[in-house]
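Q: We require from you a single protein entry containing the residue sequence and its fold in token form, and nothing else.
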Amino acid sequence: MIQSDSRNRVKKEAVKNPAVLNEAYDYPRQVSFSRGMRVELDGQVMLFISGTASIDENGKSIHKGDVAAQTRRVFTNIASLLESEGADWKDVVRTTCYLVDFDHYDGFNDARTEFYEKQRLDPLPASTCIQATLCRPELLVEIEAIAMIPKDRPR
């Protein structure tokens, strides 16, 4: 049972775009997280996009074995989540990128560079790349992002 809390809180709400990604609770086995979080601070909004992988709108992994195709799908998924909040990749200030193996780094980085060039990003987001085990064995890359937008920007 959730108890009420009378403390003053920063306004926050879930970021979602079910046309591209199901919410975690729509998967056959429930997991407890939001695709992203919108946090309002004074005149700014921060968007925290959870780790996003090459997943389709039905929650299925796609592009198995192809790190470049997976990377492109991840960026497309994140772009759709940003768009649902009135943001785009020019608003992203930071990414954290997870690769199952740094042997995939060149393919990942080539796809990332191509995507960023198409977006005409300048400056590029701050970023960290980490080798890690991901939640599904067929996934090769996962990315989380932080974006900032003015509070009065329409969704």
Notes: Residues 12-150 form a domain with the 60s Ribosomal Protein L30; Chain: A; fold (CATH 3.30.1330.40). The beta strands are 12-15, 36-41, 44-52, 92-99, 126-131, 141-150.
